């Protein structure tokens, strides 16, 4: 190459061409940034969707468990209602049985009172005859002292069990009079003796002329 060629001035660079290249580079950068933003938004959206789906699955499972719990509680409630009805029926039966038992107890109390009164009456009758036979035994054996003591003991008791028989009472009065005549009993309380042997309380001892 000649020296003249080397020292030839170079043409100035085209300003319009350089400006276009800068625009393309800027646009490429913008598109790259936009792509990155879209890609980032995609992953964020995907992550959010996954979280939402997990929450939905959890919520669905919770709802199913809640429904199962509600159904179980409803079944238990129905069972409790049936048990309550059965217990109410049993309670009604027990109350009827209690009323019957109370009625029977009242009847038994009345019967017991009647039997007690009857036993008391029978006891008095038996004791009265025992007293009579003991007095008769002492008198027939001529043990007048024991006979008088026995009669005096009966009188001092204030409430005698005497035989329910007019003839037996008459015999006891006869024994009493005999003991008075023989001096084994004093004749200063004849009214009391007559009352004990069945004579009216208004009866007065005979006046001696």
What does this structure look like?
The chain is rod-shaped. The protein is mainly α. It has five helices and no strands. The C terminus is likely disordered.
Please outline the helices and strands.
Elements: H1 3-6, H2 15-140, H3 144-157, H4 166-181, H5 190-196
One letter per element, helices H and strands E, the order comes to HHHHH
Helix amount, in percent? Answer: over 70%
Low-confidence stretches: 199-209
Shape: rod-shaped
Structural class, please?
mainly alpha
Number of strands: 0
Q: What is Rg?
A: 66 Å
Number of distinct helices: 5
Largest sheet: number of strands, sense, barrel closure: none
Mean pLDDT: 76
Strand content: under 5%
Through-space gap between termini: 211 Å
Please tag this protein with its features:
mainly alpha
In short, what is this structure?
The protein contains five helices and no strands.
